[in-house]
Amino acid sequence: MAKLVIVRHGQSQANRDNIFTGWTDVPLTEKGIEQGQMVGDELARMGIQFDDAHTSYMSRAIKTMNIILERIDQLYIPVYKTWRLNERHYGALSGLNKAKVKEEVGAEQLHRWRRGYSEVPPKLKQRQHERRYDRLGVKMPYSESLAMTQKRLLPYWEDQIAPRLMDGKNQLIVAHGSSLRALIKYLDQIPDDQIDQVEVPNGKPILYEFDPALNITKKTFITMDGEENGNS
Length: 232
Known about the structure:
With 232 residues, the protein is of the alpha/beta class. The protein contains 8 helices and 7 strands. The chain has helices at 13-17, 30-46, 59-71, 98-105, 107-115, 131-134, 146-166, 177-188, and strands at 2-8, 52-55, 79-81, 171-175, 206-210, 216-222, 228-231. It has a 7-stranded mixed β-sheet. Strand 2 (52-55), helix 3 (59-71) and strand 3 (79-81) form a beta-alpha-beta unit. The protein is globular. The two termini are 14 Å apart. Its EC number is 5.4.2.11. Belongs to the phosphoglycerate mutase family. BPG-dependent PGAM subfamily.
């Protein structure tokens, strides 16, 4: 029986300030650091031993991962970083305040951009470039829907994470709200028109347990007070 724990990074400054970020790097707040520590302490209490860890190319996820691994005394395990676990790219919305965008376009349109499956936010007029992606030969998106995020995420799941779980190796993923929503949609087989109801809060781990055929046997929402709320 293999275990997978997925965690959205701790609160970032953009989360605190209600700003779209996407592929933009922003630091964790003090609260975000504390959230990572609390996740680590709870996972330590549960005694899960991970074989591998996976995170994005964004510093807020990487730092949350490091905090968690330090608190569970597992800094020695392999950590794999991939752009495929990055937050979705919000295109021209990046850097804008969500409340101001809501005033301009209305709550319904904003909800479709943020929570819908196929809706693509306004695109950038010019493609951005960063060394971290240029060195990989990866072109930064002009904008991404959740469907596009899922499409670039799934090859990594299928090639790097799923085989390890099938081998009985416990895995840890620390990523982002949208990339984790895309993964949850796939794992839980959530219909396109219902994914807008799924939220992934900062620093709230979810535990999946799988049989050797990679069927989900249990899903648990881990709380920070030592209690677990689960459904199978």
